[in-house]
Each structure stands twice: as structure tokens, then as C-alpha cells.
Amino acid sequence: MFDTRELGRRPGALKRLSRSVAAPKDLGIEVIGVPEGATVELDLRLESVMEGVLVTGTARAPLTGECVRCLEPLERELEADFQEMYSYPDADDRSRDADTGDDAEEEDRLFLEADLFDLEPVLRDAVVLALPLQPVCREDCPGLCAECGARLADDPDHHHDAADIRWAALQGLAETMRDGEKDNAPRERGDDPQEK
User: Fold this and answer.
1) pLDDT value at position 186?
2) Consecutive 10-residue averages of pLDDT for the chain (196 residues)
3) What is the bridge-based pairing of β-strands 110-111 and 73-87?
4) Can you tell me the distance from the alpha carbon of 180 to that of 80, in angstroms, rounded to the nearest whole number?
5) 2: which of 16, 20, 67, 132 is 20 to 30 A away, CA to CA?
6) Are 96 and 87 in contact (CB under 8 A)?
7) Residue 81 contacts residue 106 (beta carbons within 8 Å)
8) Reduced to 3 states, what is the DSSP secondary structure of residue 29?
9) DSSP per position, 58-117
10) Residue 101's Cα: distance from chain center in Å?
11) Residues 28, 40: Cα–Cα separation, whole Å
12) What pLDDT is stored for residue 59 in this prediction?
């Protein structure tokens, strides 16, 4: 929770602050995220406006996850920007007088509670939206061998002589045809048993 009492309700009042907070649980997606308890550095700008407090900020946090191609662990740094309006509780009464008619927007509004605001939902949205959906250890990561699971970056010349099972029937046909060509090969003079 962050306190806005020092701002007061004077429109135009401004306060900057930097904080380090512990990352909440499940701040990420399946393959990459901010570890629970990791330090998240926040640079915030709180600005008092007529309806409430406009919070603009940047979050910097360490990321851990795994490459989606080769499954190797990876670590990165994330920087996510965000901006959110926290309305005064009585701003709801004022906005009813100027009825906008947009109920969906009303449901998404965040409010100050006793001059405090909770940044976690905003931080969660900003960080998750800034995450790479398909993180890779490097842009040209070749991934894993489809047959044996070997990491191709460790052995670039890795290959298998075994044929793809989808082509096995055609490979058998090709071998039969090669054997047939040997049987039909022209014979040397003297090889024909009827010549004698």
C-alpha cells in the first residue's frame, strides 16, 4: 500500500518516490516470470488531479524461466511502464451527477482507500503484459532434436540415420526396386546357363 496523504487534494501537487518491494506470488506466465520474493524496483510519480491520484511508474525486476525451444534455464531483467488513475471515494458520487453511461469503465476503476492505494493489480498487469510469450535463450536457438531430445546447440552436426516412420513404406519400396534392378541387370557373356 502507498500513502497519498502528503499530496493532499490540491490538483497539480506532485510527488516522486522510489521503492523496493518483494514480488508477489505468481507474477508471470508458465515459462517465465518474476520469482516470488524477488526485489522489484519501483520509480513512481504521484500526481493529484481533480478526480483522484494519477500514478505513473516503471518497475524493474529479475526474470527467470526456460527457453521454449531447448528448455534451458534463462535469466533476464524486465522493465515495465504503467499508468493508473486511483479515484477518490467521493469521486464516484460526482461522476454519477455527470452520468457517462459506461458501466464497464466504472467496474474497472480503482479507488483510494483512506488515502492509500494498492499497486499490486496494476503492477501484475504491467509485468505480465511486458513478458515475452515465447522466451528463447538466444534468437537463433536451434532447439531440441525431434527424435532423441538432444540439445542441438551442443552438437550442431547431430543427426540420425533412421528414416522418418512416415516414409518407412516408401523406403521399403525403394529398396525393393533397387533389388529388382540388380536382378534385371544385363548379364555378361557366359553367364546365361542356356548358352552351353
Assistant:
1) 59
2) 75 89 92 94 92 92 94 94 89 52 63 83 93 92 85 82 70 76 59 54
3) parallel
4) 68
5) 132
6) no
7) no
8) coil
9) EEEEEEEEE-TTT--EEEEEEEEEEEEEEE-TTHHHHHHHT----HHHHHH-EE-BTTEE
10) 36
11) 13
12) 96
What nine digits make up the cell of 102?
A: 459506461
Question: Which residues share a beta bridge with 102?
Answer: none
Going by their DSSP bridges, the two strands 32-34 and 52-66 should be labelled as: antiparallel
- Tell me the C-alpha distance between 125 and 142, whole Å: 32
Tell me which residue has cell 524493474.
60
Q: How many CB atoms lie within 10 A of CB 135?
A: 17
Q: What is the CA radius of gyration of the chain?
A: 33
DSSP class of residue 138? S
